């Protein structure tokens, strides 16, 4: 499933450059993740880089965008063309 940044975000800006799919952007109040671009780093890394680097642990799975590992890999291939 895609990831979601909660309102606990402190806008530290470490997650945005860590995302290999450019799925993270600055929202009105906090950073946001585009579920159409988020692959949880499947295809790039073993674990989501935004989750690893987030100092406040505010990036859980998005229950509104449930996806399997296979779904995430298909999305990775679509996004990267690989």
Automatic annotation (TrEMBL):
InterPro entries on file: 4Fe4S_Fe-S-bd, 4Fe4S_Fe_S_CS, PSI_iron-sulfur_center, YfhL-like
Domain 4Fe-4S ferredoxin-type: residue ranges: 1-29, 31-64
One Pfam family cited in the UniProt record for this chain: Fer4
Keyword Iron tagged: yes
Gene3D superfamilies: 3.30.70.20
Keywords for this protein: 4Fe-4S, Iron, Iron-sulfur, Metal-binding
Stored PANTHER family: PHOTOSYSTEM I IRON-SULFUR CENTER, PHOTOSYSTEM I IRON-SULFUR CENTER-RELATED
Protein name according to UniProt: YfhL family 4Fe-4S dicluster ferredoxin
């Amino acid at each position: 499933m895609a990831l979601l940044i909660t309102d606990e975000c402190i806008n530290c800006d470490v997650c945005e450059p860590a995302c290999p799919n450019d799925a993270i952007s600055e929202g009105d109040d906090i950073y946001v993740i585009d579920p159409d671009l988020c692959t949880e780093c499947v295809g790039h890394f073993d674990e989501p880089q935004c989750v690893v680097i987030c100092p406040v642990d505010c990036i859980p799975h998005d229950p509104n965008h449930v996806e399997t590992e296979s779904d995430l890999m298909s999305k990775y291939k679509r996004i990267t063309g690989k």
